Amino acid sequence: MSFTRRKVLGVAGAAALTAALPVGRARAQSNPVKIGMSMPQTGSLGAGGQAALVALRMWVDEVNVRGGLLGRRVEFIVYDDQTNPANVPGIYTKLLDVDKVDLLIAPYGTVPTAPIMPMVKERHKLLMGNFSFQVNAKVQHDMWFNNSPWNDASSWSDGFIKAGQKAGAKSIAVLAADQEFAQNLANGARVLAKKAGLKSVYDQNYPPTTTDFSSLIRAIRAAKPELVFFMSYPNDSVAIVRAVNEIGVGSQVQIIGGGMVGLQFTPIMSSLGSLMNGFTNYNSYVPGMKYPGIDDFLKRYAARAKEAKVDPLGFYLPPFNYAIGQMLEQAVNGTNSIEDAKLAQYLRTHEMRTIVGPIKYDKNGEWANPRVVQAQFRGVVDKDVEQFRNPGKQIVIYPEAYKTGEAVTPYDKARKAAAGKA
Amino acid sequence: MFSLDLLFEALIFGILLGGFYAAVSMGLSVSFGLLDVPNVAHPAVMVLGSYITYLVASLGLDPILSGIVLMPVFFFIGVLLYRFYYETFEKRGTEAGVRGLAFFFGVAFIIEIGLILVFGADQRSVSADYIGTSLELGDYRIPYRMLMAFTVAIVLSVALTVYLSKTFTGRAIKAVAQDEPALRLMGANPVRIKQWAFGIATAVSVVAGAMLIVVGPVDPSMDRVYIGRTFCVVVLAGLGSMTGTLVAGLILGVAESIVLMFLGASWAPAVAFGLLLLVLGIRPQGLFGR
Amino acid sequence: MKFWIGAAVFLVVAIGFALSPVNEYFFFAAYVILTAVVLATAWNILGGYAGYVNFGPPAFIGVGAYTAVVLFKAIGAPLVVQILAGAAMGALLGLGVGLLTLRLRGIFFAIATVAVVFIMETLAINWRYVGGATGLQLQRPEVMAPFTSYTRMLFAVMAIMAVVSVAVARYVQGSWIGRGLRALRDSEEAAEANGVPTLKLKLFACVVSGALLAAGGAPMPMYLSFIEPASTFNLAYTVSSLGGAIIGGMSHWGGPIIGALILSTLQQIITVTISGEVNVLIVGVLLVLFVVLAPEGVMGLFKRWLKPS
User: Fold this and answer.
1) What is the nearest CA distance from B162 to chain A, expressed in angstroms?
2) Contact (CB, 8 A) for A178 and A207
């Protein structure tokens, strides 16, 4: 009796101990390659995150049809961080220690990504960035590769500031959310505005939970700026656009917009409609831009987006998220391994071909050749999603390579101006 | 950038905002001010009201009308809530102080998380003709949504004040707050009166919730900052005073508006809490307290 | 004596675990559970023993965490210094809150403590040095041997803190201070009439409770490698501290331990299996259930069960 019992206890104990032990890296070939991330699917960035997710899942399915990575199926594990940075460290710890993923992709957005930078550096993990802005500047992780068409602040604000100067603007107002993305951008933009000789007449931060901007817009109006630069996240961007339309910014404003995240999300574009007219804002892709393979991608994406009941157009994030997958695939195939250090080495030294064009990284893990466009909304009508499918509603004013027209100034005139050429 | 114009516009905005804060605190003035129920769940119930208003308004009804239509439903919820509180805590005596507080705090959290689970962590807003447009008086712009909320607030305050002083049940409610044994001697049932009062307070809260979502987008965690605003107004007013609530609301609204203008948006949310601590420290019975 | 033997055994087991090859995530989750024990125990000194319902744990946790951040950023202070300094600041804040609310009771005291939370949060939001509303990324220093990871070391440190806070609570409960606090809780007027120094006792409870709460929050920036105001000053900490004490039982130092262990373990399991939200919902539901049905908490249920009817 006691012998059997001891044996049972022994086996049970061994089993429990084995379960608690860290799993060894030598796995059978049939084990999947696990790629893990958290994606903001609700909260401020939610609308964008959901669209990005469709593109990533599409890549996972297509790569598995091609035989997976290194002959192993790719398993994709994703959680919702709700655009709340507090949720992210726990999620990534879970991904690494409970789900035991092999490769990490960052959440979409600077704010959810900032908290895990120290962690991935400490644990020597490669992190594929996802539309973050300068989030690695302080941590300086050497295995960080950001996927977004900008580099530093000048790659973003040059176009905006130049457009303002072309219209004769001499003064600038800056309103930035107190969060990682907006602060990074504002810090850079302030320096550049000063260098360009613009006088700062208004410069304020607001807490990211602000919902009523009428007082802030009123104050901006009183300062009489000619260039108004907003750095905001989707919830605030929407509120700012509404407040500007409600309160007005004054007839001297030439160019307004700049760094408003969210005005690229299809659901937000269709719900704001004509309120956006006259705003000049950044984007990563507008219809008409010639990227290799983009048209085919958009068609495949549209089919899946319809099923998922998500953004049907898929312009801003999805192509770039798909490109993350493509880059991982090229690096894995190029090094024949899934080891973080080897993949990082490959990504650092090669130029990769993706559906958003060739991508090469600089020593900070940002795009060596930025490609941010500034586009002005004109002639947008309410409650119409399809109007954005063809060029004409977002007139690209910068850079030269993708330009489709000039900005109409001042802002009051641009609000009523007709759309560009379709 | 300071100018007299800006100050004047901030003052106007502050008054409108203050009226709104007063309306939002009316329900608490009754439930906590008059009935001594430690109802920290009041703002959460109001946010719940905002979301239900959002649902009803999405069927095509005007948001404020939706709030009014929902009043009977919330009246009923209030009655049930008070009844439960009474049976479980109040009846057993004041030892239940800790437990009553913990109970309402727990309820507030359950409502908040429940809203997140059902609606997600996203913001919700409603649209109406008066949302997004403003009254243009020369160089000044006064948003119609604020005017709307202010008007509803005034109507609500007047209605509640008249009710409490002119009608029989209204006066009974005030009586039960002041002298319960005397009321009992007169043959009235204090529990039923308090229950009725709590129901009214909750019904008023749903209209407050409708105004909340008219004034701006709502998200489930908004109840937290409104704990500060509503309690600040009720305590500053002095427990049980309806006119006091209006005055206190205006004071808070103007204070927040001025701070917003001079110190910026990052200090404004603390104004209510700071004012609350000040009042509690210096004059806890408020301006018109009993 | 039995208590100290039990505490020693617990510490040996905890540190032994930290040095053994158990899955890393265990320590990530267990740290949170041990913190919950510290917070509930600390809360109970003021809330349970004295009867003053404190809705402000997040304010103290935040003070502890941000003190740690400032010291770490300014002079690279080691963890022990961060914790001690955090506790000192927590004691100071407790003193301040106590003095401010000297004559407030019941719901007024509770609402005042909520106000303190928001005001502290606003201060943090407006202080660029600690990152403002954006927050701060923090690179953890190399972990000291014999621990193999920083999280394991934090787990061991929190185990020690749990023992310390329970020992403090036990001492307070059994001493004349505890008797005085109980008299205060039962009837403040009667206690005063009997010569109990109620105001001094109340201040004492505020200071001790505040110091322990802040000490519990001090290692958090190192735990997450990140800090930002919204999640640090989150009212969810109020629900879990209150919940742990009420569910466990407020009159004995063992109550918060049991309550926090049950609650926090449940929360961790739910977070890993279902979602982050549902775990806060469970706390709220359990809090309401216990407050309504079993106000003496688990310890109260045990007592009733053990006593012959």
Assistant:
1) 33
2) yes
Of C133, C226, C276, nearest to A118 by CB-CB distance is C226
Tokens representing C267 are 């929360």
As a whole number of angstroms, the distance between CA A5 and CA B236 comes to: 71
Task: Check residue B218 and report its DSSP letter.
Answer: B
pLDDT digits (tens, 9 = 90+) for B224-254: 989 999 999 999 998 878 888 999 999 999 9
Listed by start position, the domains of chain C span 2-233
Q: Report pLDDT digits (tens) over B5-37.
A: 888 888 999 999 999 999 899 999 999 888 888
DSSP string, B112-138: HHHHHHHH-SS-B----TTSS-EEEET
Give the chain A residue whose CA is nearest to the CA of C133. A178
What tokens does B186 get?
A: 């007169």
Structure tokens at A329: 């695939």
Segment C45-69 mean pLDDT? 94
What is the C-alpha to C-alpha distance for residues A119 and A115, in angstroms, rounded to an integer? Answer: 8
Percent of chain C surpassing pLDDT 90: 61
- Identify whether the C-beta of residue B240 lies closer than 8 Å to the C-beta of residue B31: no
- Chain A nearest C-alpha distance from B173 (Å): 37
pLDDT in tens, B41-59: 999 999 999 999 999 999 9
E strand or H helix that includes residue A74:
strand A74-80
Q: What are phi and psi of A201, to 5 degrees?
A: -100, -10
Which residues, listed in sequence order, are joined to residue A206 by a DSSP beta bridge?
Answer: A177
- A245-to-A273, A411, B133, B150 alpha-carbon distances in Å: 12, 11, 8, 21
Mark yes or no for CB contact A42/B121 under 8 Å: yes
Tens of pLDDT, residue by residue over A274-330, are: 999 999 999 999 888 888 889 999 999 999 999 988 899 999 999 999 999 999 999
Chain B residues close to A84, C-beta within 8 Å: 121
A367 SS3 class:
strand
ipTM, two decimals: 0.89
